Fold this sequence. Notes:
The structure holds two protein chains of two kinds.
Chain A: E1 2-11, E2 14-24, E3 29-33, H1 40-47, E4 55-60, E5 63-64, H2 69-73, E6 76-79, H3 91-101, H4 106-119, H5 135-147, E7 153-157, H6 165-180, E8 184-189, H7 192-198, E9 201-206, E10 209-214, H8 216-221, H9 232-239
Parallel strand pairs in A: 3-8, 3-9, 6-7, 7-8
Antiparallel strand pairs in A: 1-2, 1-4, 4-5, 9-10
Chain B: H1 13-38, H2 60-103, H3 107-115, H4 126-149, H5 160-163, H6 170-183, H7 186-202, H8 210-235, H9 242-265, H10 274-280, H11 290-298, H12 303-331, H13 347-359, H14 366-377, H15 379-401, H16 404-411, H17 414-431, H18 436-440, H19 444-447, H20 454-469, H21 471-483, H22 489-516, H23 530-548, H24 552-576, H25 593-617, H26 623-648, H27 663-690, H28 702-731, H29 734-747, H30 754-771, H31 775-794
Amino acid sequence: MIDFQNLSKRYGEFDAVSHLSLTVERGELFGCLGPNGAGKTTTIRMMMGILVPSAGKVLIGGLDCHAQRAEVQRHVGYLPDTPIFYDYLRGREILQFVAEMHGFSRREALARADRMLDEFDLRDDAQEYAVNYSLGMKKKLGLACALIHEPEVLILDEPINGLDPRASRDVQERLRALAAKGCTIFVSTHLLDMAERLCSRTGIIHKGRLAAVGTPAQIKQQLATSGQDGSLEDAFLQITSQQAGDQGAQGALP
Amino acid sequence: MNAPSAGRMTPSAPRMFWLLTRLRLRRLYNLLGVVGSLSFGRKKKDGSPSRSGTAKKALTGPILGLLMVVLMMFTFGNMAFQSLVNLHDQVDEEQALTSQAEEAGETAQAGEKHRWKAMERGPFSPQLLQATTGLATLLLLVTLCNEIGARELAKPEWDMEWLVTLPIAMPTLLWARLVERTFTSAFGLIAFLPLCTVLAWLSGSPWWLSPVLGVAMTLPLCALAALGRSLVDIGLRLKLAPSKLRNLQALMSVLGMVGMYLALSLSSRGGAQYGLHAVTALPSWALWAPPGLLVRALNAADGWHGLLFMGAAWAQILLFAALGVAWMRHQLRHGVLAGGARETVGRAAAARLPRAAGAARLIKSAVQRRELLLLARDRNFLIQTLLLPVVIVGGQFVMNSGFSAIAGLWTGPPALAASAAFGVASYMLMLSAFQTLNNEGGALWLLYTFPRSIGSVLKEKAQLWAVLALIYPLMILLPGVLLRDQLDGSYIGRTLLAFAGVPIYAVIAVALAVFASDPLAQEQRSRVRPRYLYLFMLLSGFYVYGIWAAQWWQSLEIALLAALLAMALWQKASDQLPFLLDPVAAPPARTSAADGLIAAMMFLVCQVVIAGIWRAISPQMGGAGLLASFVGAGAITYGLARLVYWRTGTRMLPRVLVADANPPATWRIGAVAGVVAALAGLGYLSILRHLELLPAGQAPGWWLAGLGVIAAPLFEEFIFRGLIFGGLRRSMRLLPAVTASAAVFAIVHPPASIIPVFFLGVCTAMAYERSRSLAAPMLTHAVYNAVVIGYQMVVPA
């Protein structure tokens, strides 16, 4: 469903993402792990057409994300890491606007917005201007905006970051339910326990390169000190502590 | 509590004042640096690594800022001087007149003598003192209003929340805030310092002492302004609801602007008397208020009196400040932030909302409805877009000619009303449509998640703003239709022209906005690149020139060019849109019709200039001079275009030699088209000769003829067919593109030859279309030129 073909992004001398090749199948819940500054957000922005790849391309459903951005967005829902909304619009109005921009009629958009407000428990704050929301509420609103048109692909940039435990659990349950219904989900996160619990496959990005990819169990097996029943955290720390000169997808599994 | 460990004591109050002020000043310095370096429009798309942190700013930023400040001081100083002189002339002359009239009967003569008595340096008359105090008070109020109106009142000052967590007692913090604001008020400095310095000098101080005295007087006035501002934004902020605060802010910004115009109008001689009335309407007790005391201090007969007055002023100010701080403490006793100052509309009002929304059913586009909603709620934006253009343009009128001038709009020349209407609309577009991308703010990412191209969203916004901007021309021009005695074609024509200009310039504004905005910029101020703003103003001026043009067909030409430019710019902006949020990528540089149109305008200008020079050198200007100006203009424009394209690395330039071309076919196409155009030209010339309408003048010599046949086609074809026609053809069908490019080609030639040149334009465009190589139209043009010039050489006039 999502196909990265040698995707690269370069800022002058600095390689933010370099030669990323990966395929995410339909219905997979793919977790993209990596330390801060590894290039996860850059990759996601290239998927959304916000950034332009310096080389290579990424296809979603066979459509090029940069050249055919508008067509791709029909099937994609996106949640950025810090969602910013318009100052003087209420939560409900933003949801309505998003639904209408996705092509629903006014009445349909209103109905969907109401449904989303109830589903995400935002009704009490629906009248409030979005700029006054707390971070958790903004993320909920952002997730509602991403799901309002029932997309086939969901791209989330650090969705759990900043949420309290209950909200975090809610989001994870929702993601699991969506994946069960066949939605392809691409999540970037640095919370390893969530990745271990939730994702069917994970990829570890380090300094712009794909350092490891596979199911959590497969990655744990890559621990140098084999025989030790390490956690994903240990594997992650080991993989991402290698020097910059040590490039290449070490033992990456397809 | 244990005693603080050795070496760590709570800072004393003066040290706190100094630390806070220094923090503020440092921030201001950094800000100036950022604005200075970015106002040159340096695009950040060079290959600098993105994570290098804020680069060390070149010293040009602060130096530029400083230069601007010095320049402003100078200008305002001049205006202050002029204002005081005018006040003197008005106020003292009246006084002198009345006193003379009481004394003797020969009023006229005595009045004359006093009227022209120049202003002398020294103590002022009581009336002048009063008027000057009025001016100072007016400036104080203007400073206060502008400072309150310029900031977001509804949100707390960004650092108050944070400073409260430091070990400072609340009264100390409040006093520190007052001190800090006194010293860092840029507006107050610019408003007061020039006036005070000039006042000191006019009161008889030596030139080296005047600035010192000026500063000595500026400080207490800034302190007063700081006090007023703090009272409102620290004290009132907790008492009023956020929507009321925003209303207050909007009101303040409007009042501030009106007051500024009143103050500025004093400096112009023949200006309306509103400013004068404002400053002389001061009650006499105001001379004992701080501004009055300070004015008297500067104007005192000797130093001791001056010090006395200054001391009294400071005493009053400190008393007010103490009272103010006490009141603010009282307001803040429950904490710095109000408990959830939210905008929540009550449940009852929530029920009313769906019904109101029904009224918006007429507008189909979600983008436009959202824009209107934001406009209605954001008071600042509302004032800026709808009210400010009227205030500014109206202020110009009022300042210079009084309200009677507005009635003169409709009875005067029609071009005046039309250009005023277009000017207001264009100004409003500059404030609104030009900011379309910036108004998205941080929420621009949301537009990228929709299955719609950003271009279509911008198009809808341009539509909305065009409609809104039409309100002004309607309001200005429709009464004219009713009020004028004779409704002639000229008025209606120019009215239509003004109306047509609004949607055209809405498109231009939005297209330029794409280039001008930098959505990745952190600092609000640097979000718009100024040079595109100036370009927009220049283009608007161009259209106003078109409205004022003497012949109707010239106005039409300009309108046509403007419309073409709008389309061309839109095309160029659409290329840019996918790359907006990317700091390093940019669209592949391609040629576009916009480049061609700008080249055509340059061609026109160069041609006029060269023709003027030729005429100055050899007054007998005829065909030779015209030809030379064309060739010269063509060469310059071609050279510049090539240079720019080489520098920007543009590819896919129109080529003469195309890889898969068929040379014989190319020559054939070119020759055929050339013969057709030449025949038409010959026919036209012979008709003209028959009717004896041929312009006289010396026939061109051989070398000039050679230039005309060889050089001119080379240059002109590149611009008009290669750039303009090629660019238009990318987005239009054949026939409109041919017509448009031929029309532009014809416009830049002298009126006598428009018709055959238009035909030539059509032929060359068809030749280019068929052969895809510039060789064919060049041949066509060469043949035509050869025939026409040869005719002029062979056949005597």
